[in-house]
Amino acid sequence: MRAPVGIHYSIHRTEGNPERPPIILIHGAGGNRLTWHPYIRRLAGETIYALDLPGHGESEGAGRNSIKEYAGDVLKFINEQKIQKAVLGGISMGSAISLTLAVNHPEKVAGLMLIGGGAKMRVAKSILDSVGNSDTFEAAVEMINTSCFSANAPQDLLRLSKQILLKTDPSVLLGDFLACNQFDLTGQLSAINVPVLILCGAEDKMMPPKFSESLRDNLPNARLQIVKRAGHMLTLEQPDAVADSLKRFMDDIPPRT
Q1: CA distance linking residue 161 with residue 144, whole number of Å
Q2: Are 206 and 116 in contact (CB under 8 A)?
Q3: Is residue 4 predicted with pLDDT exceeding 70?
Q4: Which of 93, 141, 183, 219 has the fewest CB atoms within 10 Å, i.e. the most exposed one?
């Protein structure tokens, strides 16, 4: 489906408590909604929107160069769908977008699920240089993709993730990494008072567990789960663990009023 704001999305509804807030899933840099395993996108008893950000997946237009701009796109989507409050689930860059919305528009956020995130997300200069060079782009994607998974991840998952990255325009992927590199909410986390679920793969090389631990220590109402046998792409490697944790988390979210 496509929202008037231009964001392509999927929606899954099942019978459940109508007072539960909907979940909005936001992918990471160079990704699309398919980086969320179907187990998560189709969680029973929940209303779940999975988005393709501008320039990603089936959403047209250009990508953005800042997390704040992407957060603005998601806010427009929330308003167009007439959603009062939502639980935002973000992986990597998506977690930065979710945190930004929680800081700037707390009235729209009922809770957060942050996967492989941090209060800031510095990107190595070597990645920025190689992604921004057409001669080294494919090699850069190969390196980034491999770094996103645990040592024993199934090869079919690596192939799927690589296909998603290669379908993203190089300028969009570079813009995503530049946006992440500029992102920094250090010192603002204490303003986020909603319940927060933090998930991180034990073998995450892109955003190691120390960044998730720092989030837990600086968010007033956060819980952290480190998931074994998983890297940065936790949503593909351990979808059952993510879905189970999200379901338990939703059970603790206050109903809509």
Answers
A1: 10
A2: yes
A3: no
A4: 141
Can you tell me the mean pLDDT for 42-49?
Answer: 94
Pairwise CA distance, residues 18 & 97, whole Å: 26
Please give the single-letter amino acid code of residue 244.
D
Nearest alpha carbon to residue 84 among 109, 53, 102: 109
Q: How buried is 225 (Cβ within 10 angstroms: 0-12 exposed, 13-18 middle, 19+ buried)?
A: middle
Beta strands in 46-162 (DSSP E): 48-52, 86-91, 109-115
Structure tokens at 1: 């489906």
- Let me know: does 121 contact 100? Beta carbons within 8 Å: no
* Tokens standing for residue 217: 């220590």
pLDDT in tens, 191-237: 999 999 999 999 999 999 999 999 999 999 999 999 999 999 999 99
Pairing of strands 8-12, 23-26: unpaired
Q: Which of 123, 117, 142, 111 is nearest to 201 (CA)?
A: 117
- Kindly report the backbone phi and psi dihedral angles of residue 197, in degrees, each rounded to the nearest multiple of 5, phi listed first: -105, 125
Asked whether the beta carbons of 91 and 238 are under 8 A apart, the reply is: no
Integer Cα distance of 245 and 49 in angstroms? 18
Look at the pTM and tell me if it is higher than 0.90.
yes
Domains of the chain plus CATH, in order, are 8-251 (3.40.50.1820)
Strands (E), the chain: 8-12, 23-26, 48-52, 86-91, 109-115, 196-201, 222-227
Burial class (CB in 10 A: 0-12, 13-18, 19+), 187: exposed
